[in-house]
Structures are given as structure tokens and as C-alpha cells.
Amino acid sequence: MRILHVFCQNHNIGDYLLAYGVRKLLRTYLDVELIASANLQGQVFDEYYIDEVVNKKYDLLVIGGGGILHGAHWPNGWFWLIEKSLISRIKIPFIIFGVGYNYFPGEDGIPERGIVHLRETFEKALHFTVRNDGSKKCLTRDTGIIAQEIPDPGFFMGSPSESKGYVVIQPAMDKSKMRFSNRPQEDVLCDIRNVAINLSEHRKVILASHVYDDIEACRYIFDESKNMEIVDFGKYAFDKSHEYIDLYKHAEFVLSMRGHGLIVPMGMNVPVISLGTHRKNIDLMHNLELSDFIADVNKTTFSADICSVIQNIETNRTKIKEKYNTFNLGFDESIRKDFDEIKMKLSHM
Q1: Considering its fold, how many domains does the chain have in total?
Q2: Where are the alpha helices (DSSP H) in the chain?
Q3: Which of 9, 163, 177, 284 has the CA that lies 20 to 30 A from 48?
């Protein structure tokens, strides 16, 4: 099977990581001859591209994962650059795979043209799934679409491994007006810096960026007199993004503001603390019954909450890892069943 995988190549290491996860799953469960890729945020699906590339060169089109249910300013009200009338021109089966609703609270949500376009996409798709971070609820609320929910592809990066005794802190600096709605950004970063300094007294602290803007936050938190290191962003961005898997795999635990800074290590049984700046991250933790591992940046108790969660991890590490292992085994079974359904649908084409 020749597959065209279309995902966001928009300068975010998290997007490249989850794309790696999608391709790993495709190769595990389908008979793959080749997987090519295109940028969802650049490739226009016009008549020529559909007729001469998609329909002629490939057997399956896979779109996602990632937070592509977003972008009210985009031509179609979400990220897929195809006119609604041209969706039916695609003659090969296509799948919307493990996508996420990425609007912040306070944003207007999916515009009317996006609702119309998504309903047409849902009707024409062979299979349409959303990730397990509350996206199903949000999509149904906005559009009436009831999509199937699957684990985020980022959960399937690799197997658990031994910790090398360092902690990863992954701050987010973009979209700051929406992330830091109740407290000044500088206060939040100052809190994280103090936590990082305390952590560095007993183990190494690694500060990791997922987008270029995050580098500024890492520099703010960094204290050169302490046992800290800033990941060389340019060493990985973006052709070697998959090497971040090892960075997360060997961490003692991870503090992250970004979804895939949580999802990737969790998939390898590495404990995480959600530095909650987005609805999707908080909903994900609630869905996994990990509410005790959220520290909300917009609360004045943020710093104390982080310290409390760290204490919880240090005291209950074995139980936490066992809990992670349980839901990850469940995810393996869930994704296997989802691909069984995909294969059944393909067989009836």
C-alpha cells in the first residue's frame, strides 16, 4: 500500500513527533509499500494535485494527527486546504486520524464555514478519529459530529527505559496572551525558574523547546551556576525531531506546558506534571485520572502546587509507573481495534 501522510510541518517538534507516531502505527498495522508526506499547512489540494498526485500515485490518504481542528482564519475554517466541492474528487480512501481540537478558552471556536467543511469531510472520509484529550466533546458541541476517539499517536513512540536521573522542563512561550490569562507571564516563568533551581540541587535539569519561541522561556529559567542545560534546539529542529524521544524516554520525570511534552513521555511510562496552560492538556490529565498531576499556571499557588506534585512523584513513583503501564496497555488494544476497523473498511472498498 502506498500512503500519502499529510500533517502539520509548521516548525513545532511536537507535530513531527506525533507524525513519527502515526507512521509507526501505519507500518505496524497495514501492509505498507511506502509512506510519502506533504505539509497540511502548505499543500493545496487543487484539481491538479488531486487528479495527478493523490489519485494516481497513492492508495490511501492519511491526514493527521495534531491539533488541526483550529485556525478560524484559514480558508476552510480549519487546516485542510481543499475546497469543499473537491473533497468528492478524491478517489482513493482517506482517513482523518487522531486529530485534536486546539482552540483556547476565549477563542470563538470553529467558524460556520469550518463546520460545513468538516461535516462534508466527515461524510466522505473512510474513517474519522479524534485524540483522547476532550476533542470529541468539543467537536460534537461545535459541529454535531460524533467522531470516534483514539489515543493520541504520540503515545506510541517507544518502550519504557531506565531513567538517567535528569528532569525535563518544557515551557511554552507562544500565544502567551491566551496561555497566561490570569497571571503575568513573567511571574509564571519566575515560579518555574525557582522550581528548576531547587530541582538542580539534586539532579540535572534539562530545558527543552518545541518551537523557536520557547527558547526565550528556557533562557529565562536557566541559571548557569546550577546543574542546568538548555537543549540545542537547532540540533533537532526539525529533521531530527524524533531524537527528542530519547530525551523524554530517559527522564526521571517531565514538567511540560505542551501536549506532546506530556504525551510522549507518558507513552513510555515516564511520570509527568502538566503545567496547565491549555484546556486540552488539563482534559487529557482528567481523562487519564491524573488530575493530581496538574499545576495550573493561572493559580497563585502554582509554585507550591508543582512542589506538591513532585513530592507525590518521588513518593509514589512505582505506583505511578504501574498506572501508566496499565493505560498504555489499554491504548495498545484500543489502537489495534481501530486499525482492525480501518482494515475491514478498506477491504470493502
Answers
A1: 2
A2: 13-29, 47-48, 55-57, 112-124, 135-143, 176-179, 185-199, 214-221, 233-236, 244-249, 259-266, 279-287, 302-347
A3: 9
Domain membership flag for residue 338: no
How many angstroms separate the CA atoms of 47 and 113, rounded? 20
Q: Is the pTM of this model over 0.85?
A: yes
- Which 3-state string (H, E, C) describes 245-291? HHHHHCEEEEEECCHHHHHHHHCCCCCEEEEECCHHHHHHHHHCCCH
Q: The C-alpha cell of 100 is what?
A: 485534536
Q: How many residues in the chain?
A: 349
Q: Is the pLDDT of residue 182 over 90?
A: no
Triad 118, 124, 126: Cα angle to 5°: 110
Query: What is the overall mean pLDDT for the chain?
Result: 96
In a domain, 257, yes or no: yes
| Confidence class for position 250, pLDDT limits 50, 70, 90 | very high
Residue 304, domain extent: 166-328
Class of residue 263 by CB neighbours under 10 A (exposed 0-12, middle 13-18, buried 19+)? buried
Residue 111 is which amino acid?
Answer: P
> CA-CA distances (angstroms) from residue 100 to 88, 130, 202?
23, 6, 37
SS3 at position 205: strand
